[in-house]
Amino acid sequence: MSVREIVTVGHPVLRQRAREISREELATAEVQGLIDDMIDTMRAAGGAGLAANQVAELRRVAVIEVDNNPRYPYKPPIPLTVIVNPVLEPVGEETVAINEGCLSVPDLRGTLERFVTVRVRWLDREGNEHDELRCGLTAGTFQHEVDHLDGVLFLDRVADPTTFTTWE
Question: Considering 57, 65, 100, 145, which one is annotated as catalytic?
Answer without folding.
Answer: 145
